[in-house]
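Q: What residues go here?
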């Protein structure tokens, strides 16, 4: 597949607007240049991989592991992501039903490997954080309760929503999905945290445990 160089990306973005570039091309615009060993196109691809698999607190450290990314570029990427998040934050937005959370997680449906995500919420059902727990596992059974609830406890979250994508396109839960969700639901109850839903997303659809009465309702 043909890959545009940085000059072409700049010219086409100026002509067509910021909605035109792909994720990798937006990173190319932020980076400005690559290195002799790491052309900007390849560098942008590596950055996108880190962005999708890393959590906010770990992102700068993960970016610095990429050959060709120093502190300035790592900070520039992280700052751009934080600014975008702040500008798109709606303090009046409440997660009252499964479809409310979809805009915040739908980009994971485009990933070629599985991403397991935990969304923490406060007592007003407002999002506190969205964290990637693991990637590429392909098996819900390996998820451990401590991996889910460690940060939720630190944030004093009152509830969580679990989400993972099915790259194959089938949004229905597997036996492991159901078994592990039940385990995590019981663990949440012990900790006094409500597991509000588990949502499986694909490119064209989603499956909500709560909507399908697989998960008890916590209010």
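A:
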């Amino acid at each position: 597949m043909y890959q545009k160089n940085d000059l072409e990306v700049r010219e086409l973005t100026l002509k067509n607007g910021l909605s035109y570039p792909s994720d990798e091309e937006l990173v190319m615009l932020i980076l400005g240049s690559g290195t002799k060993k790491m052309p900007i196109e390849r560098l942008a691809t590596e950055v996108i991989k880190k962005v999708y698999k890393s959590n906010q607190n770990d992102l700068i450290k993960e970016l610095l592991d990429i050959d060709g990314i120093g502190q300035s570029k790592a900070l520039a990427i992280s700052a751009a992501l934080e600014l975008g998040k702040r500008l798109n934050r709606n303090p009046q937005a409440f997660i009252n039903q499964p479809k409310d959370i979809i805009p915040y997680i739908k980009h994971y449906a485009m990933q070629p490997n599985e991403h397991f995500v935990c969304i923490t919420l406060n007592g007003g059902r407002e999002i506190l954080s969205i964290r990637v727990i693991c990637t590429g596992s392909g098996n819900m059974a390996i998820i451990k309760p401590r991996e889910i609830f460690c940060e939720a406890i630190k944030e004093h979250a009152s509830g969580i929503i679990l989400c993972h994508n099915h790259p194959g396109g089938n949004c229905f839960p597997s036996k492991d999905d159901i078994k592990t969700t039940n385990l995590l639901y019981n663990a949440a109850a012990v900790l006094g945290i409500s597991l509000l839903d588990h949502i499986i997303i694909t490119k064209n659809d989603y499956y909500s445990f709560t909507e399908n009465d697989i998960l008890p309702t916590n209010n």
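A: Context that may help when evaluating the design: The longest helix spans residues 71-88. Helices lie at 6-16, 23-31, 40-53, 59-64, 71-88, 98-105, 145-154, 175-191.
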